[in-house]
């Protein structure tokens, strides 16, 4: 099923005049699927720097913030486990099919988690400013708007190698990249 879907998707990309990608990570996927390099054009995701600004005076009352669609590949369950083990306050903005499972896990582990559901874009800068860490534990990401927003606000970001996040975070300089890129 997956192979058939990918072959149809790749065929449609090959017939196109241009393929726009948001990261080198996605560009490499396209190249591996046989899309000619000259068809691939990189246009990075953009975020308003006037809306997402550093605020040194903001009280940090959130230990860890995740802004994400709640699905298995986002790895939120692992973030809940670590926060429970370290007794950190976790705030999760987003919704998705894993919500009930994540709420159950948080209850089982007695983790201090607040599930906010979907949050309006205008309210996100305040959440980032109140956070000590932003965690994006996704297995696949390309270029995350949330990660770019968190970086603009100055939150220390933690994400995974080999997911496209390394195009936004410089390891041990302005964030932490975990795992093995291979």
Architecture overview:
With 182 residues, this protein is an alpha/beta fold. It contains 6 helices and 8 strands. It is globular, with a radius of gyration of 18 Å.
Descriptive keywords:
alpha/beta, six-stranded parallel beta sheet, 6 helices, 182 residues, 8 strands
What is the typical, i.e. mean, pLDDT? 91
What is the count of DSSP helices, taking H or I runs of 4+ residues?
6
**Total strand count, please?**
8
How far is the N terminus from the C terminus? 26 Å
| Parts with pLDDT < 50 across at least 5 consecutive residues | none
Shape: globular
* Run of helices and strands: HEHEEHEHEHEHEE
Helix content: 25-40%
Strand order of the largest sheet: 5-4-3-6-7-8
Strand content: 15-25%
Largest sheet: 6 strands, parallel
Specify Rg, calculated over alpha carbons. Answer: 18 Å
Look at the helices and sheets and give the structural class: alpha/beta
């Amino acid at each position: 099923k997956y192979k058939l879907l990918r072959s149809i998707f790749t065929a449609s990309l090959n017939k196109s005049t241009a393929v726009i990608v948001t990261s080198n990570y996605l560009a490499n996927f396209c190249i591996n699927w046989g899309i000619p390099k000259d068809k691939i054009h990189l246009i990075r995701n953009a975020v308003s720097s006037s809306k997402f600004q550093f605020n040194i005076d903001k009280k940090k009352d959130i230990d860890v913030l995740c802004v994400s669609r709640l699905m298995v590949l986002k790895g939120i369950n692992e973030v809940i486990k670590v926060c429970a083990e370290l007794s950190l306050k976790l705030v999760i903005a987003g919704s998705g099919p894993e919500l009930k499972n994540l709420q159950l896990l948080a209850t089982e582990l007695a983790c201090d988690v607040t599930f906010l559901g979907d949050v309006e874009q205008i309210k996100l800068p305040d959440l980032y400013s109140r956070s000590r860490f932003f965690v994006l534990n996704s297995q696949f990401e390309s270029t995350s708007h949330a990660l770019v927003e968190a970086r603009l606000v100055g939150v220390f970001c933690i994400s995974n190698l080999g997911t496209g996040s390394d195009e936004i975070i410089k390891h041990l300089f302005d964030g932490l990249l975990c795992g093995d890129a291979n």
